[in-house]
Write a structure and sequence with these properties.
alpha/beta; two-stranded antiparallel ribbon; 14 strands; TIM Barrel
């Protein structure tokens, strides 16, 4: 597995990395032994960058990730988690409607302040059972996370005037090596980066073979500031893996006729060049030097193995101009 430098942070990330939402029981329960087996599959394939978050299973993903990594030499892997949400014990169990099944009994409370981020970091270390985290992402600081735009703007102001000091202090003290933003919205990245400097972005679904929304202004800001990008959601919630099949999903809803048409034509281009759509989707983000890693989330060893096998096949350069014409652009 090849590695790429994460800007000037001193960290190197494997080109493919592991996303821990699935092993936090996203949409379905996952037995602990299956979660550990999935992590082991990633490790055996050469993955050495693992991402998790307090929100994933309300602490469950961090616990499982930490249990697995405790048996590995600390210098051999890079670990990221997230801040911005504090978990508090809840006698009523976890809240419903978060997407996590059989989550741990903790409520979720947004807190992007200095104290909130410091506490979140310490709590994550305790759940992980590890002495350090390499990268902290500010999680879901975007308008879609909140009931109103005013609420989002208030949280953004708290982070830009208070929370950022915690991250800078943690980095200066050697407790983390990098910090950034983990979101789905391009506008959220631009809003934050106009106020603070970030080492990296974890961008889900907006820089894929199909969806190029992160190109343009955001990519220019990254290039000018030296901010690197870790890309998640390369399959856009399913359709770029399954193809344009009945019931295929794009951004977690049933794909529109326009999306189905675009993807069907992308499939035809891929077939013409002797590769699969998933293969092209995995390789596309890594064409950009701003991208340090492609994050793959799964809770099944078989799914991970299928993606690793697809990634192992080279993609001819001639395919990209044809794909560019079919993609969604800003």
């Amino acid at each position: 597995m090849k590695r790429r430098k994460l800007g000037d942070t001193g960290l190197e990330l494997t080109e493919l990395s592991f996303g821990g939402a699935g092993i936090g029981n996203l949409y379905r329960p996952v037995a602990r032994e299956d979660a550990i087996a999935t992590l082991a599959t990633a490790w055996d394939a050469g993955v050495r960058y693992f991402d998790t978050a307090p929100f994933y299973g309300h602490g469950l993903s961090e616990r499982r990730t930490g249990d697995f990594l405790q048996g590995k030499p600390r210098g051999e892997f890079v670990l990221s988690s997230k801040v911005g949400r504090i978990l508090r014990a809840s006698p009523d169990g976890p809240p419903t409607g978060t997407g996590y099944v059989e989550a741990l009994p903790f409520s979720i409370n947004y807190d992007y302040s200095y104290d909130g981020i410091m506490r979140s970091h310490e709590d994550s270390l305790a759940r992980l059972g590890l002495s350090s985290i390499d990268i902290l992402y500010v999680h879901d600081l975007e308008s879609g996370s909140f009931a109103t735009e005013d609420e989002y703007r208030a949280h953004l102001d708290t982070f830009a005037t208070s929370g950022i000091r915690a991250l800078e202090e943690l980095k200066a003290g050697g407790k983390i090596s990098a910090f950034g933003l983990g979101v789905n919205e391009v506008s959220a990245c631009i809003n934050a980066m106009e106020r603070v400097r970030l080492d990296c972005l974890l961008m889900a679904g907006r820089y894929s073979l199909l969806d190029r929304t992160a190109t343009g202004k955001l990519m220019r800001i990254c290039e000018d500031s030296g901010t690197m990008m870790i890309v998640g959601g390369v399959f856009n919630s399913g359709i770029m893996a399954t193809g344009a099949r009945p019931g295929a999903t794009f951004d977690y809803t049933e794909a529109s006729p326009d999306i189905m048409d675009r993807v069907a034509r992308m499939e035809a281009v891929a077939k013409q060049h002797g590769v699969t759509l998933a293969n092209a989707a995995l390789h596309f983000p890594l064409l950009n030097p701003v991208v340090a890693s492609v994050l793959i989330g799964s809770a099944k060893p078989s799914s991970l193995t299928r993606n690793f096998d697809a990634f192992a096949n080279p993609v001819p350069d001639a395919i990209w101009p044809e794909m560019d014409e079919l993609a969604l652009h800003p």
